[in-house]
Amino acid sequence: MTRPVLGVLGAGKLGTVLARLAVAAGYQVLIAGSGDPERIRLVVDVLAPGATAVTAEQAARDGELVVLALPLGRLGTVPADALAGTVVVDAMNYWWEVDGRRDDLVSTSTQVQAYLPRSPVVKAFNHLGYHDLDEGPRPRGAADRKAVALAADDPTALTLVAGLVDDLGFDPVPIGPLADGVLLEPHHEAFGADVGADELRAMVERTRQAQPVRPGTGTATWPANQPGTSSPGIGRAT
Ligand SMILES: NC(=O)c1ccc[n+]([C@@H]2O[C@H](COP(=O)([O-])OP(=O)(O)OC[C@H]3O[C@@H](n4cnc5c(N)ncnc54)[C@H](OP(=O)(O)O)[C@@H]3O)[C@@H](O)[C@H]2O)c1
Question: What are phi and psi of 41, to 5 degrees?
């Protein structure tokens, strides 16, 4: 089966794990940090052997499917023109410590889609910690296979990314439109979830019942205690 070339923007904790899993699944992987590829070449050789260190521009341009695995606060440095027409996976979370305090607590994907209007955006891979992702892959049909939730507006993009999730060794669980991705973000039950598909669906539904997403906004009823609240066992961006 022909797999899309995977671009990964971000060669940190999440990006290198995704790159390693994708190489293992047979993908050609282009991975970039924010600067000269030389700066990440050793890290990539050690943590994601088989992936190719490139510039962010190159990963965005040559990737046929591109994952954003960088701090949300760095979104404005992502090469939007090079991503036009490409399906983009938003794996990011909002962390006030890294991204700055902000009052517009909408889904990260709503912001990403506004920044990349010519790229269909899919939310995925944000709720699992990088260690869990690293240790999680299981063959299709395995009883203990873990799940990765996806939110998307574009059905073709959703199918493509669901294929990536499956190839990497997880059950894809679509939860609804892109704005619903907020239900997977910090301070919601599914954030940090390292569970199977049925349990993940139940977590999302409980949150949806308790905190309906406001239509079209990707804004759920966020708890008041954002800053300083500790994360439920998921690696932070720093
Ligand atoms: N850590 C986790 O377990 C985990 C799990 C799920 C989701 N996430 C989310 O994934 C994102 C990354 O988290 P992380 O823990 O992997 O962070 P990290 O270890 O700090 O890595 C961030 C990476 O992003 C790179 N970067 C910054 N601007 C860039 C740009 N314009 N183009 C390409 N790369 C750029 C950085 O490169 P430089 O060093 O060159 O600046 C660095 O390699 C965050 O939004 C986080 O919430 C993290």
Answer: -60, -45
* Minimum-distance ligand 1 atom for the alpha carbon of 14: 16
The ligand 1 atom at the shortest distance from the C-alpha of residue 59 is 33
Ligand 1 in reach of 35 Cβ (< 6 A): yes
Residue type, 172: P
Q: What is the pLDDT of residue 229?
A: 35
pLDDT interval class at 230 (50, 70, 90): very low
Choice among 63-67, 171-175, 185-189, 195-199 with the minimum mean pLDDT:
185-189
Task: Characterize 67-106 residue by residue with b for buried, 16 or more Cβ atoms within 10 angstroms of its Cβ, and e for exposed.
Answer: bbbbbbbbbeebbbebbeebbbbbbbbbbeeebeeeeebb
Q: Is the CB of 107 under 6 A from ligand 1?
A: no
Distance in Å, CA 79 to ligand 1 centroid: 15
Q: What is the CATH number of the domain that holds 132?
A: 3.40.50.720
Query: Which domain covers residue 39, as residue numbers?
Result: 6-210
Which atom of ligand 1 is least distant from the CA of 13?
16
Number of domains in the chain: 1
Q: What is the mean pLDDT of residues 148-154?
A: 97
* 171 within a domain of the structure (yes/no): yes
Q: What is the pTM of this model?
A: 0.91
- 79 in any annotated domain: yes
31-67 pLDDT, tens digit each: 999 999 999 999 999 999 999 999 999 999 999 999 9
Quote the CA–CA distance of 16 and 11 in Å, as a whole number.
Answer: 5
- Is residue 146 a part of any domain in this protein? yes
- 93 is a domain residue: yes
